[in-house]
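Field notebook, page 326. I keep forgetting to write these up properly, so this time I am using the form the group agreed on. The chain and the ligand, zinc ion, are recorded exactly as supplied. Prediction of the bound pose follows.
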Amino acid sequence: MAKSVHAVLFCSLLVGLSSAQTAPLRVLPWNGHPAAVSLTFDDARPVHLDVVVPELNKRHLNATFFVIISKLTRLDDWRRVQAQGHEIGNHSVTHEHPAELNRASEELEVEDAKKFLDSNFKSDITIFAYPYAELSAGLLFWVKKYDFAARGWQGEGESVYVAAGAEPDWYNLPSQTAYTKYDAAVYRSWIDKAFAKHAWTIFQIHGIGDPSTGFEPIPTDTFLSLLDYLKAQEAKGLWVAPFGTVAAYLRAQKTLEAAKPQLQNGEERFVWKVPAPFPSGVVLKTAIQGGTHVHVYQGKRELHPSKVGVYSVSFDSGELIVKGAL
Ligand SMILES: [Zn+2]
């Protein structure tokens, strides 16, 4: 009896493997969380340094700041913001509408801003947000050259929730714009919806409080209530992380999942090309079939699973070898 049970188990294991030959591994979406939310703040306004960053820091939340180079004052303060774990992104040199740009100025708006940011901040800046969320073919050409992801806008509705199962347009990731008229319930509903859909949503915020602080300022108490709600949802599993962090994880996930294993001598070799540019150090939480029979390597380094059988796969390595799963 025991033998036949084992045989049945063994056979069903084989069937399971053969029916999923091309998907013996599964990257856990959103870094192992059920959903993700990113806060982005545009235009390098002083209120970001004076109110937003201290309030985020109080709650140990990190966000993204898309800065306009020509408006960037208090550079030391902005460097400190990056050092505290927040993300700095490119929002062009002058924030001109793309329709006003010619070929030369399209290049300058992206490239000069990037060069300025890279020479004044610690790490390479490889994320972009289109001014006024307006895209043009000329701008897109340079954004693709210097960035791995860009924030755009795709209207209201369901498209503002990015699913982990589909490949989004990396150069027009959707965001939801904050408006003064919205109360805290609106922002809570965005977060709740991301949770319910197991999706990622990106907030696009400008001013806070006084109308002089930027476009469509969120009333300060509404903003604080949004942060408190995010913190509470984080405690329930929500991944609250900067735009580039989530985009890099998702793009790396899509790249690894698209890698077809080469089968040889009982081992499966996954090879992928890291996009360029791309941030280094992305680690993908990956479940691999085969239980304790499996040995997983990247180069000569053997990876060991967590207690729940999840491996930390380095995306930089471009290669993963699974032995013993066949
Ligand atoms: Zn802007």
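OBSERVATIONS:
- The radius of gyration is 22 Å.
- The chain has two domains: 33-247, 261-326.
FOLLOW-UP: compare against the apo run.
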